[in-house]
Amino acid sequence: MSNKPNIVILGAGYGGMITAARLQKSTASKDANVTLVNKNDYHYQTTWLHEPAAGTMHHDKTRMDISKVLDLSKINFVQDTVVEIKAEEKKVVLGTMELDYDYLVIGLGAVPETFGIPGVKEHAFGITNVDSVRQIKDHIDYQFATYSQMDEKHDEMLTIVVAGAGFTGVEFVGELTERVPELCKEYDIPREKVKLVSVEAAPTVLPGFDEELVEYAMNLLESRGVEFKINMPIKEVRADGVLLNDDTMLKSNTVVWTTGVRGNPVVENSGFEAMRGRIKVEKDLRAPGYEDIFVIGDCSLIINEETERPFPPTAQIAIQQAYTCANNLKALIEGKKELEVFNPEIKGTVASLGGNEAIGVVGSRKLYGNSASVMKKMIDNRYLYLLGGVPLVMKKGKLKFY
Amino acid sequence: MSNKPNIVILGAGYGGMITAARLQKSTASKDANVTLVNKNDYHYQTTWLHEPAAGTMHHDKTRMDISKVLDLSKINFVQDTVVEIKAEEKKVVLGTMELDYDYLVIGLGAVPETFGIPGVKEHAFGITNVDSVRQIKDHIDYQFATYSQMDEKHDEMLTIVVAGAGFTGVEFVGELTERVPELCKEYDIPREKVKLVSVEAAPTVLPGFDEELVEYAMNLLESRGVEFKINMPIKEVRADGVLLNDDTMLKSNTVVWTTGVRGNPVVENSGFEAMRGRIKVEKDLRAPGYEDIFVIGDCSLIINEETERPFPPTAQIAIQQAYTCANNLKALIEGKKELEVFNPEIKGTVASLGGNEAIGVVGSRKLYGNSASVMKKMIDNRYLYLLGGVPLVMKKGKLKFY
């Protein structure tokens, strides 16, 4: 094509999209061929997926056509799956073709972490992508419909087990408390027949979160009918429910697995050294030993120097990494040697609990109830603003604040 | 309670509801205790069920609270299932109680006819009631959702087999041709992946209907992607599809059984002589040998004297029977011996084919396309008018005519 360098970005999640958008805005998109590779022709909001999973939001609201957000006269887009990265050959193997790169950005996101527990892949649902959450929503609807239709009632059809009470698990169960009364009305089912059970192996819900806020969240969710089983590992997931650590069987036709994530398996399968699928990156976000490969988002691992533990992978960090990554790509193309060091700035964390309820920490302030909920929606809208400006906020934003 | 005679009406379908409504309007509701028994606290439009089954109408539009249509200060309502009629003791056994009657109206409707074909009950869905069609709709949604979510695609998830090309089967497959493009959009599935197959044992679609109109219907539905297998009995329904008479297996996760109906099994189980669950009634609609029992709707059998064959059970006949039944009950209570003779007046038959398409015969006129579709909607609205006047038409009517 030309003798411009090829920048290939793998994955159109938070990191990949913002990297592409930043390059598009800068001279780098003239000085290099920028190619974005993604399985789907759309980008979606991973952090919103608990809502369509519960059925409180249509899945289309969480996604947007890549061609409507990026200018595809400036960024090449290839819709394909990534099979392998051949770093020594500077090549990426896709499902139907190969791509050569001069600079590579790995932003392939995460997959659910099963911890080797048997039956998770076969019998549990994951809040992973648009396809998987659409299936959860329809599965739950179908359980309710079938329950109404059967002469002999099997109450496990109306029991939803959420495995994992981390961020996604708590946000999902919160949405379910909003959705269940609607489902009961739609399917002529008494509310007391429906059980929502949150099962967590750790001794607390939302490990690492402020204790007072966790208390607030648990009280609120319990008052809305959620049953918590804390300190209770799951031994096995079966077709008819979960076997708990105390050898009791919790019968359920709907087990949703939210116990955390690991980096996309392409990373390990391509021979990179990784912890739970995540590459511990250099300060400039490059993979150790590779001057031409940047890793951002859930495939990257960054140590919090204050706690000496890894930062949990979040959209917030992925987005901030994308800014640094785009700046560093531009610098390399311009022949500069000095790269920018990535410094995460954790602005806050807010977990929605369904409806107008949420808990959060912003700076040193604790928030709960409606003010936390408004903050959560503002955070969600701010991302849309970064990506596509006011028009995208108007189109896909959360504009009902109470 | 009183020494007024007890009239008990079993079933709140077309026949039972109109009988109750007519009694309510007449002096009979003062001169007798009128009790209506029904499994649900709502009445629904059996003839509309193909629409919520396909997902082109919400199921709530087909149903209405009995308490909002009847005046329950004049008609007693008991929500219960009917277990057995003890005609010699003039008693009806319900799920939780027994009722004594002086006059009984059997309007218990129909159940699907399986013709003893193995696997129908286990593996096929029925367009039978609100619960069953809600389940069909959600089952189809779930198949589409799961197909999108799976890495390996199983096309039988997108194949819908409609067993029986009588009235309900054709109307249902017609609705599906409307619904499938919406489903494909909702679940990101190419239209050509979806198969709609109508399987009929008889040598023709819509047996007994005008040949020219049948031709019109088949051409239209084929142009919308329906595949017909005529003259093709089904040997067995299995979990993974239907085994056809030529020993080929038609793979499908969704088999909907619409090969006709038989009278409610309570009739035969209570010792009445019946053909396919239907009692051949006297000219005044009473069961042979019982002066105090009327049978209307799908549990009754009436011979068409022109053809010497039974009239197919339709809402039209059930509604007309209800008028005669209510008049005869009033006459008996007033001590009259002469009862009215039932004379069915077949005004016409219209089958919808989805969207604004239909075929029909009204009087000696053949109708097709939009004019048949408008006629069909007028017929549906006329029933609502008979039952609940203009307010019910406004609330539940089909008011978009094109």
From TrEMBL, chains A, B:
Keyword entries, A-Z: FAD, Flavoprotein, Oxidoreductase
Q: Name one Pfam family in it.
A: Pyr_redox_2
> Which superkingdom is the protein from?
Bacteria
Q: Which cofactor does it need?
A: FAD
Q: Tell me the ranges covered by the FAD/NAD(P)-binding domain, including all copies.
A: 6-322
Q: Which PANTHER family match?
A: 64 KDA MITOCHONDRIAL NADH DEHYDROGENASE (EUROFUNG) (PTHR42913:SF3), APOPTOSIS-INDUCING FACTOR 1 (PTHR42913)
The protein's name is FAD-dependent oxidoreductase
Q: Which organism is it from?
A: Alkalicoccus saliphilus
